[in-house]
Amino acid sequence: MRISEASGDTALATRALRLYVHTVGKAKLARKPTEPDATWVSTLAWGARMLCRVALATGLTLGQRGIDEAREAGAILEKAKERLDPSDKTLKAYVELAEGIWNTVMAIKGTYFYLSLRHCSPRTQSKTP
To answer: Does the predicted model carry a pTM greater than 0.85?
Structure first.
């Protein structure tokens, strides 16, 4: 995933992240032996930050895509916090940093989304005689 994003292929990295969250998440629910929780949490926090970067890279012309990516990042952060060990201060700080980035992106994208809706609203368009 990380190498795909580093090479600029964010679509592939996003698909790989979604597959990882799905497969490892199902295995953890079934209590199957998987990777340690710390690896799971750090990968999810990294993935949420990547989705936030993707959300900010999308412009107003692409419609709602950016806000959808940001919402997905929030859902992934919630999954990360479920398995977070509170005694691991470094990992906790990394997740909190990712959550702060997510909050900022949601504020930015929410404002853009609101402005784009307001701009396209029939009430704001002037009527010519």
So the answer is: no
